[in-house]
Amino acid sequence: MSRLDLVVEICGSAGEGTISAGEILSRFMSEEGYDIMSFDSYPAEIRGFGKCVAHTRISRGGVLTPGKFADVLIALNDIHSIGQLSVLKEKGVLIYDNKPARYHLEDQSVVGWLEPGMTPYGIPLTELSIKASGNARARNMVALGAFSALFGIDRDAFTESIRRRYGKKQQAVIDSNVNSFLEGYAWTLENVRKMDSFRFDGMSAEVKRDQLIINGNEATAMGALAAGLHLYAGYPITPATKIMEIMSKELPKRGGIFLQTEDEISSIAHVIGAGFAGERAMTGTSGPGFCLMSEFTGLAVMAEVPAVIVDSQRGGPSTGMPTKHEQSDLNIALYGGSGDSPRVVIAPTCVEECYQAAVLALYIAEKYQTLVILLLDFFLSNSIKNMDPPTAPETKYLNAHIVPDAEALSDYKRFRITENGISPRTIPGTEGGMFFATGLEHDERGKPVYDTVSHTRMTEKRFRKHKGIATEIPAPEVSGYEGDADIGVVAWGSSAGAAREAVEYANEKGIKAACFSSLFISPFPESELKLFSKRCRKILVPEMNYSGQFANMIARYLERPMERLNLVTGLPMASEDILKKIEEIEYL
Amino acid sequence: MTQPFHLDEQIASVKDKGFLSFRTGELPTWCPGCGYFGITDAIYKACLELGLKNEEICAVSGIGCAGRFPVFMNVYGFHTLHGRSVPVASGVKLAREDLTVFAVAGDGDALGIGGGHLPHVARRNIDITLFLFDNSIYGLTKGQSSATTLYGQKTSSHPSGNPDTPVNPVKLALAYGASFVARGFAGDPEGLKHIVKAAIVHKGFSFVHITSPCVTFDKSNFTWNNLKENHSPIDTGLHDPGNMESAMRMAEHERFKIGIIFKDEKRLSYHDNLRQMALKPK
Amino acid sequence: MPSNDHYVIIGNGPAGNHAADVLRKNDPDARITLLSNESMLFYYKHKLPALIKGTIGDTELSVKGARDYKEKNIRLRLGQEVERIDPRENRIYLKHMEIMSYTKLLIASGASPRVLPLVSNFAKHLKLFSSFTDALNQIGDIRNGRRYLVLGGDLVSFKFVRMLKSMGKEVDCLLYPDAFWPFTLTKDMAEAVNKSLTKDGIRVLSNDGLKSMNQTCEGIDVVTDNGYTATFDSVYAFLGMVPNISFALGSGIDTDRGILVNDHLKTNFNNVYAAGDCAQIYNPDIKSYWLSVGWKNAAVQGAVAAENLLGAGYVITPSPKSILSVEGFTVDTSWWENFD
Hints:
A: Pyruvate-ferredoxin Oxidoreductase, domain 3; Rossmann fold; B: Rossmann fold; eight-stranded mixed β-sheet; about 35% helix
């Protein structure tokens, strides 16, 4: 295997250490210099013995998606793992407990459902765990030991990594985990004959101990904090809650304010209050909460107050599918709320970009005195990647207030009509800078007026800001075939990773395909998209919503027929699905 | 189109000395005879007597007749959304503790659409002052029933009489645990001024219920005459604002009791709470 | 009328597969489960040497693919070993600790290479070769080695010896005429074999035995009774087969060397049958049991057992004598013919 690329799933029930085993594995692989991406799934219910799946892709060549199918399934729980066999590849490997505490009833044993071509390795997980640690709780570590022995992973390096992971715990906890790992490793080496062809080679090529292993929510929170966030107001909602939890811990340490509000209306109200007061503020929510905020989105635009809303999308409409992935809030982000309201919408395509996006969001909101919506989604919020610690944002991103000079203050017009749409703004406390801001249409001083001329000029002024913003957005990411292509895939948000990967695969198969994506959805790099479109015979727009919200948006720039791939599976976009579509339409 | 009439020249001479320094040049849009003129004057005077600087005050309002208040007050004014003055004001205060922050709301604003925010700002004890301008009617939309419209009162939305029972705003505030609860009357600006001063000085959430007539849309109940009849000052010798039972009796009194009804000075404000928790070992 | 039967077949060889097909054809609604302790799909054992040689791949080894089972709704459970049977409760205990139930059971578990007492002292140095797993495990050793010793005790050994020779290896063959399987080689036969192999450049050691074997870093040092010494990369033993019936021992099912069945292939339990290399069949004419051998016999017996499980009542008789010429000598064996 020239390019190592392995998807490992650990499946168990809540309380069996499934997720922590996945975390230990991905942390170690990251330390060993591999690229990893994890996307775990938890039971929707908090109580009981729901199914947990720790899903990790380990690769040498960079990871864009978690992969739809698994090469290895480690079954800690037979019943749950039977369902998970459907994602095991044709030549996949199953590691299972062949000596459980009691007999399974008929058809309740995972190995009983194995498809021909798959390789099972029976390891007495329970027995070895009891032998090594005195109880059956360390089956997950025995399984990791067996996995390491089977796949040629450096035993000692892995052991050290486990020790570091449990470093602050009691010695007994460290010992029972390490011993169980070693027991699983030794037993497997002694008793199991390797039958599959997977193998890790060249371990410890480049040890990377300082890698961050974080999900999109964490990256977003880190970015916002690095950009000098002062106030975060939030209300618990899946999948954005984690951002709130980080803020509650981190903001007080930095002299900032965290507030858990009574509802999402109050969250955005606090953010806008703080923005009015001159401080950087943000809230995070998901679709249903965003709906509650939509009246305020208009106020931020109209009264020209900075505000940042993170919307981590989930399955909808209404309460929808709280723990499932979807990209269906684009329309409400772009068009939700009343009136003509220019929106800044940023949709990071990967975990690393969430950090940068949060910095840009707070910067643009402050500088342009407007609302910025940061669109994450369930997958981005929950998928874990390793990355180099990001460098701190440049100072220009940290203070972007545009304040009036003394001359302007002598006859202060808060909403002065300017070329770039930005009116210098006083911060409360500034002597002689008092003004009145309102959600009503107003004149340059903020006084409510409803005349034709004022409304026209003010509307134009608010929209003019987007021209300035457009000059500050990062260039779109274009990959794949560089000449005249047969297929041009235009993707957005977290689907862009799958699109890039699909295009890579297509290129390997000799298909001339290229990929285009932009961090900014509004303003959008329209002319770059037009250039891209010109060199593509066909355009394909894959997205995780039914109505093609993004395709509909770019249709007005491209004015040409487009192929669409609209899925509402509740799962992240898979490169396999895009590749299939590319192959389908290539010869049409 | 008529030119708006500016008061600038007229008020310039007294601006520096008197409370009119808190007045903007905008001509109020309220109806002649509206109780809100008296309320604003009382607030201006209170600010002047407390020595507050204009630029250190933020007045945040919602929608309705009361919502226009910041247009006429020469401070940092923010006219927000219907019902949301309280959380926006709370956001301003949380971000900038140094500012004096007012939330201004009408009865429809604070008790109708925005009623859900009251218990939370009260239990958090955020150091803002809520001026609840209560004229018991939706005035800006021409006379519909509000949460404080009397039972049976005929309004444009209930021509045969309001079938709903009104809420008692003071009782609500007490029940929600506001640390400062008072009632004033638009017809008694001098008394109201003292209440407003105490409310602003109070460290924590101050709830000031201010009754006022709507001279245009309520000709029968909250009229100047009826309100004057119904109000009576609290006998400070008989009432201890530190006593919740007594405060409840004041709230449930058949007449509108005017004065400071409840005050808990020991309770920490939100910011003080945060500071104290930061000191505690985790 | 839809059948509520659950037919379980232990064994994924010719007997088991033919039986499964017959059962499905006659009972479209029944549950049918085919159990195999091997992970490989039903494959031609006699093509394993070609696999090692590299002239065929995995797919050409298979008799049929997984899809065939899916289409026929036959549940194929590969890599699942039976630990024991409880015929009174109609239960099968699998080694990975799962309990299965059946209404009707066919044991068609085949046979494995045996290690005879006469070489048991050297067992740890001997390699056995009969399954796909064996082939997979030894493919590297065989391709990389240079010199081999084969203990020739059955017909498969000749096939293996020629395969090695054709790969350019140096091969010695120690012939055990007395221990030949499934019959003893006559003196004439042994000589014919000797001559035939020698002609192809294989050193045949006859009237000899193993004296000592030692593993060194060079390989395995072998000394024979006659004083012949040499060093080999590996030593392979082909000393015949023994029925795979360990899971049935002590279960209540009557066993001897194999599973004892009557001429209907029925065991002492009415819903348990056996067929193929694992069965030891009673012949009323000779009033004795005989062991079934070979692919073709197994296939026929599997089909007959299936018919009888369905209630047909067919009788199996010892296969007709078919005289074949193999390796330049004649032998009474019908099972060989489908081997090539």
